[in-house]
Design goal:
Blueprint (H helix, E strand, L loop, with lengths): L3 E6 L3 H12 L4 E6 L2 H6 L7 E5 L7 H11 L5 E5 L4 H10 L3 E4 L4 H32 L2 H4 L5 H14 L5 E4 L6 H10 L8 E5 L8 H6 L16 H4 L4 E5 L6 H13 L1 E3 L6 E3 L3 E6 L3 H6 L5 H8 L1 E4 L9 H16 L7 E2 L1 H9 L5 H15 L4 E2 L22 H15 L4 H8 L3 H9 L6
Parallel strand pairs: 1-2, 1-3, 3-4, 4-5, 6-11, 6-12, 7-8, 8-11, 13-14
Antiparallel strand pairs: 9-10
Helix pairs in contact: 7-8, 14-16
Length: 450
């Protein structure tokens, strides 16, 4: 293990020797002493792990030296040692980012020794966090979190890569259970922001009256029950990524406030006056069609254009072909490991056929639930169709035996497809190869309910 390199900058040669001797008692420390600030600056290329500096030196005061150190070695911790106990100076230095302020007295050597230990522990913890975040990034490599080789999913990989290599906002759409949050995490942990926070907020899960405080924070006494300052999710995501799931559930009032924050890139906590600058990458998701929400007056058009950024539409599982079997195999391995099932079971031919014929209204989430149960229910080496429990909810079939006019059947077909595609008019118009204006006309005339 390499020695922990410490620079001691002290113009008093005798006192500098004392500090050097005290620190050198630890065999892990490699201490180098300088009597001038300029000597220290000339040797910063050696990348010391820690620097102690005297506040009052003839060629440069401690504050100036500290600032110059930070210009070239911003991550190097610095301890200031001063002959005078000046509270205002200590406060100023701590605000600038000094790691510790020690007064020269009989306890200096012990205080310095303990300060170095604390700083080393903090550095080790910080390094461990960085390693864990790096490991987390590998965990979220695209092909590790999204199993599949279908053309539809390859298009998603290409879009995710573009999103990860840019700072543009991202909007993710798709049916419930298609993996929107996983995609958002993968984009974050493969971007330049991966070492900062990924903060996820489900807009549908927060009571309407608490949304503003949750997102933007509040000051103590801002409202009844605000007994302390609260940091909002935007601040928590500083220099990282904020993921707003189910963005379509935000009411018009909070949409207006969201728009202002995104435009100005700053916020003011509820009940406060301080303006807080923001550097946050935004990713939003919804199972609804935001264009439809805009047209229906439920979502602000200006906010829609602000958050749309790079759109990623996740395909439902039923449109991904053999990806269903790849995902099933992955979930089998996980389920067998979690439930200590050895050897790992496989899918029988009949089970594979049944999976491929099923429409999966719950998408990947439903597939995982089916496989988890099947692994437990399986009595042999292969999962059989009888081991798999499918949803009892069936898609509503059109009753062609009824006597209806052609127009009534026409309306029934459009209504059924609107339900299937979550009232996505553009999607239904494309699938049925009819004009979207035709659907809107039927909706406006109350012949179709959405």
């Amino acid at each position: 293990m390499e020695a922990y390199q410490i620079f001691v900058v002290e113009d008093d040669a005798w006192y500098g020797e004392i500090l050097e001797y005290q620190l050198s008692l630890n065999p892990d420390y490699a201490v180098q002493r300088f009597t001038t600030a300029q000597e220290c600056l000339k040797n910063l290329y050696k990348k010391p792990d820690l620097i102690t500096i005297d506040y009052a030196m003839p060629d440069m005061n401690g504050i100036t030296l500290f600032k110059k150190i930070k210009e070239t070695n911003p991550d190097t911790p610095v301890i200031m040692i001063s002959a005078q106990e000046n509270i205002s100076t200590a406060v100023e230095l701590l605000k600038l980012g000094i790691n510790d302020y020690i007064v020269k007295d009989d306890n200096t050597k012990e205080l310095l020794w303990n300060s170095v230990i604390r700083i080393r522990e903090h550095q080790a913890l910080k390094q461990k966090v960085e390693e864990l975040k790096e490991e987390l990034g590998h965990k979220y490599e695209f092909d590790k979190i999204i199993k599949g080789s279908s053309p539809a999913i390859k298009k998603i990989f290409a879009l995710m890569e573009k999103a990860s290599n840019s700072q543009i906002n991202v909007s993710i759409t798709g049916e419930t259970g298609t993996g929107k949050e996983l995609v958002a995490k993968a984009i974050h942990y493969n971007s330049e922001r991966k070492k900062k926070n990924f903060v996820a907020v489900n807009m549908a899960a927060i009571p309407k009256e608490l949304v503003e405080s949750e997102l933007f924070g509040h000051e103590k006494g801002a409202f009844t029950g605000a007994i302390a300052r609260k940091t909002g999710r935007f601040e928590e995501a500083s220099k990282g990524t904020l993921f707003l799931d189910e963005i379509a559930e935000a009411d018009l009032n909070i949409q207006t406030k969201l728009l202002r924050v995104l435009q100005e890139r700053e916020l003011v906590r509820v009940g406060g006056n301080e303006v807080i600058k923001l550097d946050v990458r935004l990713i939003v998701a919804t199972h609804k069609n935001l264009e439809e929400e805009v047209q229906q007056g439920r979502f602000r058009e200006d906010l829609y254009f602000r958050i749309m950024g790079l759109p990623i539409e996740l395909p439902p599982l039923r449109e991904r072909g053999n990806d269903t079997l790849l995902l099933a195999s992955h979930f089998i391995t996980e389920a067998c490991h979690e439930n200590k099932i050895h050897p790992v079971v496989t899918l029988s031919t009949a089970a594979k056929e049944k999976l491929l014929k099923y429409h999966f209204p719950g998408n990947i989430r439903e597939l995982k639930a089916i496989i988890d149960l099947a692994c437990v229910m399986c009595n042999g080496a292969e999962i059989q169709p009888a081991d798999m429990k499918f949803s009892v909810t069936k898609q509503k079939q059109l009753a062609f035996a009824e006597e209806k006019t052609m127009e009534e059947y026409y309306i029934d077909i459009i209504q059924a497809f609107l339900k299937k595609y979550n009232n996505n008019v553009l999607k239904v118009a494309d699938v049925l190869q009819i004009g979207k204006s035709t659907i809107y006309k039927l909706i406006n005339n109350d012949k179709i309910k959405v």
